[in-house]
């Protein structure tokens, strides 16, 4: 399903709605270039899951844990699935929380087979095309 947004707020709102379709243990892979809006979308997911903490990019921590309900990954600086495994990051893929993964292709070989996919394409300064796949 394709969606079009024209502000970060709209992308956040879409993420919030999308969160309502998620179930315990779901793993969501977020594709899109730098600045596409993956973290904005994740902020919406957090809101939709009822998480009140401020969600920020986990770039330097690789993964932020929001009370075991949401695990937000940024794999930009990881270069292999082995790295992710070594850091203990893959365990949460099989937990009850929802995992949201930015830059999933960097750890492609350790991603669970069962996952959902969202792709964000920057089509202009403030416009985005967001494809949600089951
Ligand atoms: N329609 C839109 N949806 C999402 N973000 C938008 C939109 N229009 C403008 N922006 C801006 O684009 C930027 C998106 O940043 P964000 O951190 O969410 O990207 P990202 O995909 O997580 O990047 P990175 O790979 O670096 O983590 C923000 O500065 C946001 O304000
Ligand atoms: Mg990000």
Q: Which SSEs are present, and which pair or pack?
A:
Elements: E1 2-5, H1 8-19, E2 27-31, H2 38-48, E3 63-66, E4 70-74, H3 81-86, E5 98-102, E6 116-122, E7 128-133
Parallel strand pairs: 2-5, 2-6, 4-5
Antiparallel strand pairs: 1-7, 3-4, 6-7
Task: Please name the defining characteristics of this protein.
134 residues; alpha/beta; Rossmann fold; seven-stranded mixed beta sheet; 3 helices; globular; binds adenosine-5'-triphosphate; binds magnesium ion
**SSE order in H/E notation?**
EHEHEEHEEE
Helix content: 10-25%
What is the level-2 CATH architecture name? 3-Layer(aba) Sandwich
Bound ions, cofactors and other small molecules, one mention each: adenosine-5'-triphosphate, magnesium ion
pLDDT averaged residue by residue: 96
- How many domain regions? 1
CATH hierarchy, class: Alpha Beta
Q: Could you tell me the number of beta strands? A: 7
Q: Biggest sheet, in brief? A: 7 strands, mixed
Shape: globular
Helix count, DSSP H or I runs of 4 or more residues = 3
Distance between the termini: 9 Å
Please give a structural write-up.
The chain has one domain: 3-Layer(aba) Sandwich (Rossmann fold), CATH 3.40.50. The protein has three helices and seven strands; from the N terminus they run βαβαββαβββ. It has helices spanning 8-19, 38-48, 81-86; strands spanning 2-5, 27-31, 63-66, 70-74, 98-102, 116-122, 128-133. α1 (8-19) crosses α2. The longest helix has 12 residues, at 8-19. The mean pLDDT is 96. Magnesium ion binds next to α2.
